[in-house]
C-alpha cells in the first residue's frame, strides 16, 4: 500500500512540476467590435509553424493601422502569449499582430529574423482580407524583440532574409518601436547571444548582417527608442549608439531615457509616460489621429 501511495505522489509531483513549467497568461482583452484570429500560421519552416494572434477592429472605418508585436527573451525563451497589454493601441483603432518566432533551441540565427520578415510580408500580402492599411504598419518589440523589430523594419526591401516568404518586392513599415533592444550584436557579449548565433559568432560579417545599426539608411522608417540608463542586461549605450547613427543618416527618431530604469523594469507612472510618448510619436507620423 505504501508503495502505491508513493507511486501516486510521484505522479502528482510530476504534474505539479509541469504546471509550474507552463505558466498561464491572461487572455488579451479587446474592445467591443474587435474580433480575434488566434494561432494563424504565417509561415512554415522545416516543419515548424510560425503563428500569430490577430486582433482586428471593426471594418466600418476603413483599413486600420496595425502594430506587429514581438516578445523578448534573448531569442531563447518567451512566448506571444505573455504579451497582453495592447489597450493603448486598441483605443486608437489599431489592429494587433502578436507573433511567435523560432527560438534558438529550434533554429539559430538568422531564423528569428526570417520569421519576423515573414510575419510582416504575410500581413502585407493579406492586407485586404484583414482590412489593414499597408502604409500604416508599425513594428514593435522589447529586448530581443526590439532587435527583431529593428531588423524587420530597417531591412526594408533588402530580401536577404526573406527565403521562406519570397514574392514581395515592396516591403516597408511606417515606424519602428524599439524598447531597450540590441542594436549591435558584436557589442553585446552574453550567453543568449552565443546560443542564438552558434558557430556564426566567429563570423564578423554575419554578425554585422544581423545587427540593426548596420542597416540604417537615409530612407529608413522613423524609430522610437526607450531605454533605462541602469539597464544591467542590454547596455544603455546600445541605444545611444543607435540614436547617433539615426541622426547621422537623417532618420526621424525619438529617444526616451528612463532615469534609473532597469531592463524593462519601469515604474507604472513611467510606463504610462512612455506609452503616451509612443502614441504621440505615431500621431505625428500620421499613422493615427
From TrEMBL:
Keywords associated with the record: Hydrolase, Signal
Secretion signal span: 1-19
GO molecular function: hydrolase activity
Superkingdom of origin: Bacteria
Ranges of residues in domain BD-FAE-like: 52-246
Matches recorded under InterPro entries: AB_hydrolase_fold (IPR029058), BD-FAE-like_dom (IPR049492), GDXG_lipolytic_enzyme (IPR050300)
Protein name: Alpha/beta hydrolase fold domain-containing protein
Organism: Pedobacter puniceum
Organism placement in taxonomy: Bacteria, Pseudomonadati, Bacteroidota, Sphingobacteriia, Sphingobacteriales
Amino acid at each position: 500500500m505504501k508503495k502505491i501511495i508513493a507511486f501516486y505522489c510521484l505522479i502528482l509531483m510530476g504534474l505539479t512540476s509541469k504546471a509550474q513549467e507552463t505558466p498561464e497568461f491572461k487572455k488579451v482583452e479587446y474592445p467591443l467590435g474587435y474580433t480575434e484570429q488566434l494561432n494563424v500560421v504565417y509561415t512554415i519552416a522545416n516543419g515548424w509553424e510560425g503563428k500569430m494572434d490577430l486582433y482586428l477592429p471593426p471594418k466600418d472605418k476603413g483599413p486600420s493601422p496595425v502594430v506587429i508585436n514581438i516578445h523578448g527573451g534573448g531569442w531563447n525563451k518567451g512566448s506571444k502569449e505573455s504579451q497582453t497589454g495592447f489597450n493603448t493601441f486598441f483605443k486608437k483603432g489599431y489592429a494587433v499582430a502578436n507573433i511567435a518566432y523560432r527560438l534558438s533551441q529550434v533554429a539559430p540565427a538568422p531564423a528569428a529574423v526570417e520569421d519576423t520578415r515573414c510575419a510582416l510580408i504575410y500581413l502585407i500580402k493579406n492586407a485586404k482580407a484583414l482590412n489593414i492599411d499597408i502604409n500604416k504598419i508599425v513594428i514593435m518589440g522589447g529586448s530581443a524583440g526590439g532587435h527583431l523589430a529593428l531588423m524587420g523594419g530597417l531591412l526594408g526591401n533588402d530580401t536577404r532574409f526573406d527565403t521562406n516568404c519570397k514574392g514581395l518586392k515592396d516591403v516597408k513599415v511606417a515606424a519602428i518601436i524599439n524598447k531597450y533592444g540590441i542594436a549591435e550584436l558584436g557589442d553585446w557579449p552574453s550567453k543568449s547571444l552565443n546560443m542564438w548565433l552558434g558557430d556564426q559568432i566567429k563570423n564578423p560579417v554575419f554578425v554585422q548582417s544581423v545587427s540593426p545599426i548596420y542597416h540604417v539608411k537615409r530612407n529608413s522608417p522613423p524609430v522610437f527608442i526607450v531605454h533605462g540608463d541602469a539597464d544591467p542586461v542590454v547596455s544603455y549605450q546600445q541605444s545611444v549608439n543607435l540614436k547617433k547613427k539615426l541622426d547621422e543618416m537623417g532618420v526621424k527618431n525619438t529617444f526616451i531615457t528612463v532615469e534609473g530604469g532597469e531592463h524593462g523594469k519601469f515604474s507604472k507612472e513611467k510606463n504610462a509616460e512612455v506609452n503616451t510618448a509612443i502614441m504621440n510619436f505615431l500621431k505625428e507620423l500620421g499613422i493615427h489621429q
